[in-house]
Structures are given as C-alpha cells and as structure tokens.
Amino acid sequence: MKEACRGSEVYAVYMREDFGENVRLYRAARLLGMERYAGHILVAYRNYLHTELPSYQEIALVEENASSDKDPLWTHMVSTQTSAHSSNTD
After folding, report:
1. Number of C-alpha atoms within 13 angstroms, CB side, residue 82?
2. Rounded distance, CA 35 to CA 81, Å?
3. What is each CA distance from 19 to 25, 26, 58, 83, in whole angstroms?
4. Is the dihedral of CA 51, 57, 58, 63 positive or negative?
5. Within the chain, what is the greatest distance between any pair of CA atoms?
6. For the whole model, what pTM was predicted?
7. Under 8 Å CB-to-CB from 53, ≥6 apart: which residues?
8. 58-89 pLDDT, tens digit each
9. How far apart are CA 34 and CA 39, in angstroms?
C-alpha cells in the first residue's frame, strides 16, 4: 500500500474557454488545498493581467472569487492596476 501512495502523478485541470469558469476553478482548487492542480491558471491570468487591461466584469469576477485578502490572483490584479494607474499619473 505504501508504494501505491508514493508514486502518484499530478495532473493539471484543463483550462476552460471562459474567464469566469477559470477563476472559479482556481478558487475551488485553492479552497480545497489543490492549488498545484490549477497553478497554470494563475500563471496564465497573471500574464494576462500584466499585459492587458481587464474589463469591469473580469475585475468583479476576480474580486467575488478571491478566497482571502491575500488571494494571489486578487493581489496581483490590484498591484498591477495600481502600478499602471500610478505610472499614468506621473
């Protein structure tokens, strides 16, 4: 039995076409302690938020699905938007 438990493989969940579905999927993985299965979603959306301006709907979805004030997707979005805003006002 011990050998069967040691050799487990980790498979990532598939990203969906819909932004909201992916945000909810990532939130569920975080709440269940299964972040390693959905970490690629965080990476993809960090890259997206770094290069694109999110829509109001996307901002609302991220905010509604943040698992805490320290949620990585939420904090990255806030810091990216804050730095983009401050660089535009200089």
Report:
1. 6
2. 24
3. 10, 11, 7, 23
4. positive
5. 62
6. 0.76
7. 84
8. 999 999 999 888 999 999 999 988 876 566 65
9. 9
